[in-house]
Amino acid sequence: MVQIRFLGGLSVVMLSALLGLAASSAVPAAATPITRVAGDRDWQIDFQPGDLRLYVDPADGRYYWYFTYTVTNLTERDLVFAPRIELFLDSGEILRSGRGVPTRVVDQLKRLLGNPLLEDQNRIIGDLRVGRENARTGIAIWPAEDQQVTELTLFFQGLSSDRKDVLHPETGEKVALYRTLRREYLVPGDPEARGSTPLELSAKGNRRGPECEMEFQIGGRPAGCWIYR
Length: 229
Description:
Strand content: 35-45%
Mean pLDDT: 83
Distance between the termini: 15 Å
Radius of gyration: 18 Å
Oligomer: single chain
């Protein structure tokens, strides 16, 4: 089975840019759903997002985006947590967490945030045991070389076992789409002047739309959207 990732809710310009980068792996929205695959014991992990901020490495002046979060297993059995966390820039570039990030930057952010238990994208992969006392806190980091962006979209996969099988409209192959949390952010003003101020969520972009399976809320307010990609 081939895994294909959808990018729900992107503009035509953004989608075109993405397809130019990965035309061989993208699946048009016209893909025909076959069925939702539900295992005998479906699960979803409790997710508490932190802030998305900008960090400047004092050693060389390079910029990095970083995002913190806490996951808790409130199901009835232990799970394996293996997140895939990506940033999509309005320029069309896709950034995978951890790639191009020096170990010293991870260590600097742990000290800055005062939390030595923060786990990066590699260390956090593994068992997530049942219970609030076994919650784990992670940090995702990306190089921020492009400072001209005005919007960022965060995709977080690995919080749910839910997936859909669809038919590729051109090849007829069965492909899998996984339930993914999408959060859209605005990037206002000059990055140096803004510093490490948390990015604001886009009020419009995080409301439920045609591509959303369900709205993700915090305190009764839209804070993301569940999609399949």
